[in-house]
Amino acid sequence: MKLFALSNLCFFSSLFLYRIASANADGRETEHAILPPRGWNSYDSFCWIISEQDFLQSADIVAKRLLPHGYEYVVVDYLWYRKKVKDAHIDSEGIDLIDEWGRMVPDPDRWPSSKGGKGFTEVAKKVHDMGLKFGIHVMKGISNQAVNANTLIYDYDKKGPYTEAGRQWRAQDIAIKEKPCAWMPHGFMAVNTKLGAGRAFLRSLHKQYADWSVDFVKHDCAFGDDLDEGEISVVSEVFKGEHNRPIIYSLSPGTSAAPDMAQKINGLANMYRVTGDDWDSWPDVAAHFSVARDFAAANMIGSQGLNGRSWPDLDMLPLGWLTDANSTQGPYRACKLTLDEQKTQMTLWAMAKSPLMFGGDVRKLDDTTYGLITNPTILEIDHYSSNNKEFPYINGGKEGATGPGAGANATGVRSWIATGTQGEIYLAFFNLNNAKTAISAEITDLGKALPGWKLNPSCKGTEIWSGKDFGVMQKSVSTEVETHGCALFVLNCK
């Protein structure tokens, strides 16, 4: 148990040093997203129906309970501009709120402080007063509603209608109707960024978010199958100039994303989803192993990003008290993952240095879930570890290291390795099988993944989730791992 106390001390000391190192004399960050962002997102617990009251109540709890652990962003997920009326759903048409320039504005029935054209300004101020940072989800391009109304395009710099070639430009001039959002075809479509008017619309849209004092923008339907390099470039350029309040630029969804695709845009963003939506089912968790491995192997973890670094995003953590995808019901049920599966998710996310965005209802945050998302060793690994990669030199069952399955059908055993700031080695074993499995690794093989490290033939080690001190392990590290479970070792082999 001494290791837990030491880990707590190291974590909070490191967090304090990070906050000093990441700011210069006048308080501005010297490098943006220097560490994988952490926070809370409303989607897993409220879907799209969250209200201002529920959001601010949740933010207050995040500030008191999770901010000390680095969870600093609170994000309103999608459709904050949609009226909550009978039969409304994610692909409803004609019930959204837009201004005279075709830009989305919050539904005042759910966000009363937005009345009078204030947008999210008042909400952002209250969030900032709590010591947190405020984020919103936005969609690609322009809404069908704006196109149908053929609204004028706003010139942000000239503060009036966008004019070029002797005429005022409108929504239908820039809309690309043959490029709708794949999963919301009646909601949004791409804009033509080759046109000055198309770029002007996007600029007016995202400069407005900056004016609302937004700190985090989750840009959906612009990556993966819906990749739009033109739009990403325009938005990135807007945020690149926001020095007074740097904005985290997050891309989503990541369906069919691959490292070569991410390499085209990682320098333009700070986070980008590499899988589809992750919900509380084992197939969803299992589908992340090969994807996370590929992005780590391509050296994408912590690579160049917008005004700093970028991070492959394995999606939110659907733990605790939740709702369902596409629901119009708030949080009403418990996470369906077993406790072992939840530990596996937390461990893989940390070993892959994914952003940690908790999705459960913080108003009903139970002790077990709280312990999972604030485990000091997990948080230390997620922020400060290095050399993060899949470790293939393991033994476990008949199916070997990776097993015959892939994606959501993955089986067999997996392992990841990373190194700590004090010379420790983190070694995680994962059991993707449907039965308890013994997993082992030869200590001499650790050096294969860590070239240049001089390791002893024996290691002292503790397993984090059980708290068990394994003492000095000769030649190999081995343990039995529960179905869909994991073991996370902190090893001293020098």
From TrEMBL:
InterPro entries: Aldolase_TIM (IPR013785), GH (IPR017853), Glyco_hydro_27 (IPR002241), Glyco_hydro_b (IPR013780), Melibiase_C (IPR041233). Residues 413-491 form the Alpha galactosidase C-terminal domain. Keywords: Disulfide bond, Glycosidase, Hydrolase, Signal. One of its GO terms (biological process) is carbohydrate metabolic process. SUPFAM superfamilies: (Trans)glycosidases, Glycosyl hydrolase domain. Its EC number is 3.2.1.22. Coiled coil: none annotated. It is an enzyme of class 3 (hydrolase). The keyword Disulfide bond applies. It catalyses: Hydrolysis of terminal, non-reducing alpha-D-galactose residues in alpha-D-galactosides, including galactose oligosaccharides, galactomannans and galactolipids. It holds the Pfam family Melibiase_C. Residues 1-25 form the signal peptide. GO terms for molecular function: alpha-galactosidase activity. Transmembrane segments: none annotated. Belongs to the glycosyl hydrolase 27 family. This is Alpha-galactosidase. It comes from Citrus clementina. The lineage of its organism: Eukaryota, Viridiplantae, Streptophyta, Embryophyta, Tracheophyta.
